[in-house]
Amino acid sequence: VCQVPVAEGKSVQQTVDILHKKLEQLGAVKQGSFCVDCETYHATGSVTGQPNKLLYVMHNSETPLSCLALFEGGPCLVADANFDVLMVKLKSHFQNAKGHKVECRGSRYRYCDFLIKVGTVTMSSSARGISVEVEYCPCVVPGDCWNLTKEFMQSFLGPSVPELPSVFAAKPEGLFAPADCVDTMT
User: Origin, by domain of life (predicted)?
Assistant: First the structure.
């Protein structure tokens, strides 16, 4: 997942349209849409002298029956989609940070063994940027296929391709360490 800069002199939507056109010129086929959202909650009870910790709850249309929750500096969990109901019941402990819901919606493409998602990131209904997610489906260890993924991304992103994300660079070298929910949330 990487952030893509808005093309000079273009709007967010115009830049997204340019990316769609480049993918289609490569031969990618549109396969529907996707949505990822993240709601932020802050703990209401705090220990004197310590700042309130945040809780992030994410939903992903690729995994519609579950959601992910990450406590700032702490554990991550995968829960079923009804976790939101639990959060309402815990309102005396966690308050929803109104106006801090971040959402990424966009189109999903398939090109050979690659899955590409190009989305517009919004916060409070205001477009904030562009996100591109690329997955090389035959490999579950992102570090093992990074060079191939990077080369493919350069074909439609040009110089905007990031370096290997630090979350994968920190994985032990040579060990089978597939991406997990903490990597996804990070």
Answer: Eukaryota
Give the tens place of pLDDT for each residue, 149-164.
Answer: 999 999 999 887 887 7
| CA distances, 118 to each of 78, 114, 122 (Å) | 24, 13, 13
DSSP state of 17: H
* Pair of tokens at residue 141: 């260890």
Q: Mind listing the pLDDT tens digit for each residue in 3-35?
A: 888 889 999 999 999 999 999 999 999 999 999
Q: Judging by beta carbons within 10 Å of its beta carbon (0-12, 13-18, 19+), is residue 11 exposed, middle or buried?
A: exposed
Q: Where are the alpha helices (DSSP H) in 97-165?
A: 146-157
Give the tokens for residue 87: 């959060």
Q: Is 49 left (phi over 0), alpha (psi -120 to 50) or beta?
A: left
pLDDT above 60 (res 174): no
Give the number of other CB atoms < 10 A from CB of residue 78: 13
Residues 109, 45 contacting (CB under 8 angstroms): no
| Contact status, residue 65 vs residue 81, Cβ threshold 8 Å | yes
